């Protein structure tokens, strides 16, 4: 008997044994085939309907559009923040500026005023080099910044003189806070008071008797109170757009006022006489001032 026949015989014997063993058995199934399939199908449907977290991925074009919008927003904000309007009033000229909130700036001769119009309602700030008179509308803090110091108000009228080392602020109505650029202390001014920067870099406050509602220069008057004569000549230069060549060291002081409606020659004659000085006109708008001969 070969090997293949024996294997076939063994398999047949095992089949007959299995049939004989289970032929008389009655296995009690709890559910029918149909019920089992229905249960399985319901479970599959229930599993498929369970919530699945969804992750949205924006297309590349949408990311580029969002990035471009952000860049545009930053560019517009930067433009609004740093764009400025600068006005220069030359010698011999006065001008007036209307600020975005209705405040008015009267600008004296040889003066530069700069501000940021598109950022104005975030920060009311004016940069000044020279002299200007301000009529400020009420609102948030208003600042006038110069190299010498800062003036802060809410709503008032005041004059700021900031030229070279000289810094003087006078309050006409309301109240004014003045701070020196190199100092930590500030002073408060009421009407008819002025603050002046002294040689020590500190602010000194003094009273002004019967101060007008506006400074003299806004009404074509130049007024001086114990002013060094050299500063008087400098102011005449600015108001008339001329050049005055005078001795470098002049310790005289002058108190008085002049109307700008008269000629510069007339003003120089009145000014030089009490100080024993004389003047003569050189080429163009240059005037030479020197001591009179005995």
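Sequence proposed for the structure above (294 residues):
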């Amino acid at each position: 008997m070969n090997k293949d026949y024996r294997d076939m015989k063994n398999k047949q014997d095992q089949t007959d044994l299995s049939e004989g063993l289970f032929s008389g058995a009655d296995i009690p199934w709890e559910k029918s085939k149909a019920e089992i399939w229905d249960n399985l199908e319901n479970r599959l449907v229930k599993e498929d309907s369970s919530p699945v977290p969804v992750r949205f991925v924006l297309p590349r074009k949408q990311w580029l559009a969002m990035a471009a919008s952000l860049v545009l927003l930053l560019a517009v904000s930067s433009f609004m923040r740093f764009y400025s309007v600068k006005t220069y009033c030359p010698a011999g000229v006065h001008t007036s500026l209307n600020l975005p909130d209705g405040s008015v700036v009267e600008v004296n001769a040889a003066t530069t005023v700069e501000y940021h119009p598109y950022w104005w309602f975030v920060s009311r700030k004016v940069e000044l080099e020279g002299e200007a008179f301000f009529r400020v509308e009420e609102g948030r803090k208003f600042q006038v910044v110069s190299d010498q110091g800062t003036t802060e108000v809410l709503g008032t009228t005041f004059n700021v003189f900031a030229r070279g080392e000289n810094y003087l602020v006078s309050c006409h109505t309301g109240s004014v806070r003045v701070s020196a650029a190199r100092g930590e202390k500030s002073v408060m001014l009421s009407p008819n008071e002025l603050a002046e920067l002294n040689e020590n870099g500190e602010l000194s406050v003094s009273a002004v008797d019967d101060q007008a509602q506006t400074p003299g220069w806004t009404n074509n008057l130049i007024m001086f109170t114990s002013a060094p004569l050299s500063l008087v000549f400098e102011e005449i230069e600015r108001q008339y757009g001329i050049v005055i060549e005078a001795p470098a060291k002049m310790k005289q002081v002058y108190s008085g006022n002049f109307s700008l409606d008269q000629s510069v020659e007339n003003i120089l004659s009145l000014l030089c006489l009490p100080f024993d000085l004389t003047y003569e006109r050189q080429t163009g708008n240059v005037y030479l001032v020197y001591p009179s001969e005995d």
